[in-house]
Structure formats: structure tokens, C-alpha cells
């Protein structure tokens, strides 16, 4: 109960160090100690591990040091100390921004990945693929994908629980919607075809794909004038216009990052579809350049009882 105001502890990568933040408060930094460094340190026992510390003049925070050979050892000790102190009442997260840096394998740690792709390059693509392959399934990916190359269909990139991503090329947007296996996604597509939205609806309705999906929002950056045609797809049902449909919203999986928005944007729509395999309902909404899709726990019969 004493930690009610603390909902997450965040390890976040910067270029020269990893910071540690409790809620919004910076508490320490962790960085590599070069062999040639003559920095004067003191030692502390942290969860049974002896770690070098000093007070950082640059950041006005305690700084812990590691040698490349014992990097995971240091992060493990600090993480275990926080875990022992705060328990499992808070979320522990690692905010990664440099795919060339391996993520320490720590218990009770969710992974967030923030990245913006630059120019094409085989080396960078290989680094990303290796990063996704070696990392656990991520809690959230926030990426600006401007490259023409496709990510492998087997990549854990598509298995992340939540995505908040901007995707430039239409073939990459199509690949994402085809292979995504997570629970929530907010996406910005520069190009997309109405028929691909219809294909998405049909695959969900048949039970072929997207079994975990809870919420999807896609904003089209161009060519959205025919998006409304999605609502004429086979299987899309209509609630009487004189009645008030239920409002769909679910807790944001990324609420530790987006503190001001605990829940997904509400979906209020008279259109819905029913999944053939279990009779569950999804609300479907098209407003201007925005496509929204929210999956209910309720069956069609239960859903219609909520209509006012």
C-alpha cells in the first residue's frame, strides 16, 4: 500500500549510460568504467554483489559502474535490490533504443523498444533482426519504419503485445497487418488499400488470425477517401441508428509510458462484426482518415443487451 503512487520502475538507455527512474524521479545512472579511468569510487554491497559507485557531478546522481565482463552482473544486482524492496506491486521495464546493445535477462522485466529507422542498410537490418531474435517478446514497440525492407514474418517484432508505430511503405504496412500477433496497436500508415482492411476484417471474423487482438487504430496519412467503403464489407452488421451503442475501451498496455491516458480511445460505433469461432463481437469504426477496431469479451447476444 505504501507504493500506491509508484506504478513503474524504468531502466532507460541513453548513448553513454543507462538511467534508472522510479515513476518520474531519476534515482541513478549506470555506465561502463573504462580500464584507463582513474575515477575514485566507493563500493557498496547490492543484493550480495559488490559494485563500484561514485557521486556524479554531471548528473547530480549516484553512478554505478560495470566492466564489460560483468555488465549483466551489475544490472542483475540493482534490479534484484529494487525487486526485493518494491516487490511485484510495480512494473519493471527496460526502455531500449539501441538495438546493437543486448538486453540483460532479468526476472519480472518488460521490454519497451523505441526506434526510428534511417537510410537503408543491410548491416542495420541484420542488427535489428538479431535484436528481435535475442530479446524476449516485447511489451511495447514504438517505431518509425521508413525503410523499404521487410521484417521477417517469423520475427518477434510482430509478437510484441503493443505497437505504436508509423510505417511508410505500403508493402510493410500490409506485412504488419498480416503478421501482427499482439493485443493492441496504434498505427500510422502512409499508404494502404481498402481491400486490405476488408481482408483484415475477414481474417478476424473467420478466426484465422488476431486471436489476441483487443484494440486497433490506424490513421491513414493519405488516400483515405474510400476508407468508408470498409463498412460495406460482408459480415459487417448494423445497430439501429435510433439506439445508442456501447462504448469500447480497454486499459492501455503502455499506460506506464502514456501516464495521462490510462485507457484506449473510446470506440462508439453502430457497426460490428461477429467472430465465427466463438461468437465474440468487435466494434468497427471509420471516421475520416481513421479506422478503429475494438474486440469485446461479450458474445453477440451479450453485446446487443448492452445497446440502449
Can you lay out the helices and strands and say which pair or pack?
Blueprint: E1 8-13, E2 18-22, E3 25-32, E4 42-46, E5 49-56, E6 61-66, H1 71-86, E7 91-96, E8 109-116, H2 122-134, E9 140-145, E10 162-167, H3 170-179, E11 184-189, H4 194-206, E12 215-220, E13 237-238, E14 247-248, E15 267-268, E16 271-274, E17 280-287, E18 290-299, H5 300-305
Parallel strand pairs: 1-7, 3-6, 7-8, 8-9, 9-10, 10-11, 11-12
Antiparallel strand pairs: 1-2, 2-3, 4-5, 5-6, 12-18, 13-16, 14-15, 16-17, 17-18
Please give a handful of descriptors for the protein shown.
single chain, 308 residues, alpha/beta, two-stranded antiparallel sheet, 18 strands, 34% strand, elongated, F-box associated domain-containing protein
Q: Give unreliable regions as ranges.
A: none
Residue share in β-strands: 25-35%
SS content category? alpha/beta
**Largest sheet strand order:** 4-5-6-3-2-1-7-8-9-10-11-12-18-17-16-13
Number of strands: 18
The proportion of residues forming helix, as a percent range, comes to 10-25%
Q: What is the CA-atom radius of gyration, in angstroms?
A: 23 Å
H/E order of the elements? EEEEEEHEEHEEHEHEEEEEEEH
Mean pLDDT: 88
Helical region count? Answer: 5
Main sheet specs = 16 strands, mixed
Measured between the Cα atoms of the first and last residue, the distance is: 39 Å
Instruction: Specify the overall morphology.
Output: elongated
Protein name: F-box associated domain-containing protein
Plain-language structure description:
The chain has a domain at 1-105. It has helices at residues 71-86, 122-134, 170-179, 194-206, 300-305; strands at residues 8-13, 18-22, 25-32, 42-46, 49-56, 61-66, 91-96, 109-116, 140-145, 162-167, 184-189, 215-220, 237-238, 247-248, 267-268, 271-274, 280-287, 290-299. β10 (162-167), α3 (170-179) and β11 (184-189) form a beta-alpha-beta unit. It contains five helices and 18 strands. The chain has a 16-stranded mixed β-sheet with strand order 4-5-6-3-2-1-7-8-9-10-11-12-18-17-16-13. A two-stranded antiparallel sheet has the order 14-15. With 308 residues, the protein is α/β, with parallel strands linked by helices. The chain is 19% helix and 34% strand. It comes from Caenorhabditis nigoni. This is F-box associated domain-containing protein.
Amino acid at each position: 500500500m505504501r507504493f500506491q503512487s509508484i506504478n513503474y520502475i524504468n531502466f532507460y538507455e541513453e548513448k553513454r549510460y543507462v538511467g534508472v527512474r522510479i515513476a518520474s524521479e531519476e534515482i541513478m545512472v549506470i555506465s561502463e568504467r573504462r580500464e584507463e579511468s582513474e575515477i575514485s569510487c566507493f563500493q557498496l554491497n547490492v543484493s550480495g554483489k559488490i559494485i563500484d559507485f561514485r557521486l556524479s557531478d554531471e548528473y547530480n546522481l549516484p553512478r554505478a559502474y560495470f566492466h564489460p565482463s560483468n555488465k549483466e552482473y551489475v544490472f542483475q544486482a540493482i534490479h534484484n535490490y529494487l525487486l526485493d524492496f518494491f516487490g511485484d506491486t510495480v512494473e519493471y521495464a527496460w526502455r531500449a533504443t539501441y538495438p546493437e546493445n543486448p538486453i540483460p535477462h532479468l526476472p519480472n522485466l518488460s521490454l519497451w523498444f523505441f526506434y526510428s529507422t534511417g537510410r537503408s542498410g543491410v548491416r542495420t537490418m541484420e542488427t535489428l533482426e538479431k535484436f528481435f531474435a535475442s530479446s524476449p517478446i516485447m511489451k511495447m514497440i514504438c517505431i518509425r519504419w521508413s525503410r523499404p525492407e521487410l521484417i521477417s514474418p517469423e520475427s518477434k517484432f510482430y509478437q510484441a503485445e503493443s505497437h505504436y508505430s508509423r510505417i511508410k511503405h505500403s508493402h510493410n504496412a500490409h506485412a504488419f497487418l498480416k503478421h501482427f500477433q499482439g493485443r493492441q496497436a496504434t498505427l500510422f500508415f502512409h499508404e494502404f488499400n481498402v481491400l486490405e482492411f476488408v481482408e483484415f476484417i475477414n481474417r478476424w471474423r473467420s478466426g484465422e488470425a488476431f486471436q489476441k487482438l483487443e484494440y486497433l487504430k490506424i490513421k491513414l496519412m493519405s488516400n483515405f477517401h474510400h476508407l468508408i467503403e470498409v463498412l460495406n464489407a460482408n459480415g459487417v452488421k448494423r445497430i439501429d441508428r435510433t439506439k445508442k451503442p456501447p462504448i469500447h475501451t480497454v486499459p492501455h498496455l503502455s499506460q506506464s509510458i502514456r501516464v495521462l491516458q490510462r485507457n484506449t480511445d473510446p470506440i462508439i460505433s453502430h457497426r460490428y462484426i461477429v467472430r465465427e469461432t466463438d461468437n465474440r463481437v468487435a466494434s468497427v469504426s471509420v471516421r475520416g482518415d481513421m479506422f478503429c477496431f475494438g474486440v469485446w469479451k461479450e458474445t453477440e447476444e451479450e453485446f446487443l443487451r448492452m445497446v440502449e
